[in-house]
C-alpha cells in the first residue's frame, strides 16, 4: 500500500506533528492491509493457505499433502459439483525438450488467463530433481553381415562416482534382443566381443546407456557417442 502521507494535501508534510502521527499509524495500516489481502486470498482455491481447511470441509475432502495438491483436489471437486468434467478443463504439460533443458533446482511455472477484460495469474512452484538419464537408438543400425565386435567412445564427462551402465545388442530387430553388458569395455576404451551369434531378423546394432548421479552430486555431461568407431568393426 501507499504511505499514509501520500493521501494528504501537499502542504501537510511541512507539519512535523502530522508526519509523526502518520508514521505512527503506518505500521497499523499496513497490518490491516496485509490482513485484508490474506483474507481475500482464501477465497481462491489456488491462493488459499489456512483457508484450504474450510474449502475441504465444505467440499467433503480430507486434508491432503502439500498446498498445490490440496488446491488441485478442491478445484476438481468444485468443478465436479458444477457439472464440469476433465474434458472441460485445459491441461498444460511441461515435458520433452523444454523440461530437459531445465537445470535441477527450484523453478516457477506462471499461468496467465484472460477473457479480454480481466487477467488472472497463477504461479506454481516446483523442484526438478532428475538424477539419472538414459539414451538409446530409436531405430537400430542394420548390418549386412554378422556384428561380432563393437567399440564405443563417449563424448563428454562422467564423474568417478557416477553409475554408468552400457548394454549393447547385435540382434536389435529380433522380438527379444540379447543385451550384453559392455560397461567395462566402454569405460576402458576396449572392444566388446559379442557372445551372441544369431539374429532371426538380421543383424542390427543398438545400445542402452544409463547414467545415474553419484553421492557428490556432480552433473554428468554427455554430448554424444561416436558411431563410426562402432560401425568400423561391425564386419570383423
State the distance separating the first and last CA atoms: 78 Å
Could you tell me the radius of gyration in angstroms? Answer: 31 Å
Question: What global shape is seen?
Answer: elongated
Flag low-confidence runs. 221-236
Kindly report the average pLDDT value: 78
The main β sheet shows up as:
5 strands, antiparallel
Category from helices, strands and their pairing: alpha+beta
> What is the number of E strands?
11
Q: Helical residue percent? A: 25-40%
The percentage of residues in β strands lies in 15-25%
Following the backbone from N to C, one meets helices and strands in this order, namely HHHHEEEEEEEEHEEEH
Number of helices: 6
Q: How would you portray this structure in words?
A:
The protein has 236 residues and is α+β, with helices and mostly antiparallel strands. 28% of the residues lie in helices and 25% in strands. It has 6 helices and 11 strands. Helix 2 packs parallel to helix 3 (67-81). The radius of gyration is 31 Å and the shape is elongated. It starts with 15 loop residues before the first helix and ends in a 5-residue tail after the last helix.
Amino acid at each position: 500500500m501507499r504511505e499514509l502521507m501520500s493521501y494528504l494535501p501537499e502542504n501537510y508534510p511541512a507539519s512535523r506533528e502530522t508526519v509523526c502521527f502518520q508514521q505512527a499509524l503506518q505500521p497499523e495500516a499496513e497490518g490491516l492491509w496485509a490482513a485484508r489481502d490474506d483474507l481475500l486470498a482464501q477465497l481462491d482455491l489456488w491462493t488459499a493457505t489456512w483457508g484450504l481447511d474450510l474449502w475441504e470441509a465444505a467440499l467433503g475432502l480430507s486434508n491432503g499433502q502439500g498446498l498445490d495438491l490440496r488446491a488441485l483436489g478442491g478445484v476438481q471437486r468444485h468443478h465436479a459439483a458444477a457439472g464440469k468434467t476433465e474434458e472441460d478443463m485445459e491441461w498444460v504439460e511441461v515435458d520433452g525438450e523444454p523440461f530437459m533443458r531445465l537445470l535441477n533446482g527450484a523453478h516457477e511455472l506462471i499461468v496467465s488467463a484472460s477473457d479480454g477484460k480481466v487477467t488472472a495469474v497463477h504461479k506454481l512452484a516446483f523442484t526438478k530433481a532428475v538424477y539419472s538419464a538414459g539414451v538409446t537408438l530409436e531405430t537400430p543400425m542394420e548390418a549386412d553381415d554378422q556384428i561380432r565386435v563393437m567399440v564405443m567412445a563417449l563424448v563428454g564427462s562422467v564423474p568417478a562416482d557416477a553409475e554408468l551402465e552400457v548394454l549393447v545388442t547385435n540382434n536389435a530387430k529380433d522380438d527379444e534382443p540379447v543385451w550384453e553388458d559392455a560397461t567395462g569395455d566402454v569405460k576402458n576404451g576396449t572392444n566388446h566381443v559379442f557372445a551372441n551369434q544369431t539374429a532371426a531378423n538380421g543383424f542390427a546394432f543398438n545400445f542402452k546407456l544409463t547414467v545415474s548421479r553419484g553421492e557428490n552430486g556432480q552433473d554428468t555431461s554427455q554430448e554424444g557417442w561416436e558411431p563410426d568407431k562402432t560401425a568400423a568393426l561391425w564386419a570383423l
